[in-house]
Amino acid sequence: CGAGDTEEPGAELQKIVVGASPTPHGEILAIAKELLAEQGYDLEIREFVDYVQPNLALDSGDIDANYFQHRLYLDQFNVDNGTDIVAVADVHYEPFGIYAGKTSSLEELQDGAQIAVPNDTTNEARALLLLEDLGLIKLKENIGLEATVNDITENPRNLKIVEIEAAQLARSLPDVDFAVINGNYAIEAGLKVGTDALAIEDASSPTIKTYYSNVLAVKSGDENREDLQALAEALLSAEVKAFIESTYEGAVVPMF
Q1: Are 74 and 217 in contact (CB under 8 A)?
Q2: Model's pTM, two decimal places?
């Protein structure tokens, strides 16, 4: 791979600390860790269960990089928090799916049904766009990825859109008719996007490619650090691609 020579046996490995969501990011990083060890790096994977702390930890220098978020979320986080975090590699995409709770199919959906969506700005818009694609609601013209429940202009079925923290969506399924769930949390809950989702996003959409690639991110100014370049290279390796394709059954799609 050309990122640093293999260390002498017994030599101290250089540590890289990366923050990640446990699934699938932590699992994918475990494959990269093996590749990096051969190049003299010890990859420490620090797991986070929310979407805020890994960026704060990166900004404060507690970790060297993180891998948990898509580009749109990263851009919004920088705006909201005054941070300067940049993406250095597009690794994968996780299709958003709508999953059955109290109602088992889209055909059986009753007027006034409850649909849970993520409550963070970028993912809420994404969920609402999927509901619009399914013809369940209509959003303001061209509102795109800034859509919130306040931008619903037509709701003929009088659906109740319930905003819930992304990490809690799968747990909310028994209490709502449907939930639109982020890929990583669906995987953690044992939901398979290929067989369990009632509908998923159109993966060929340019919007998906532009905004929803999950990225390896670092602090601005660290992009050319040799150790972080090696980490990016390991994540974009043939070994990682093979692992993603054989493990996640379409719930995680390599972007390289």
Answers
A1: yes
A2: 0.77
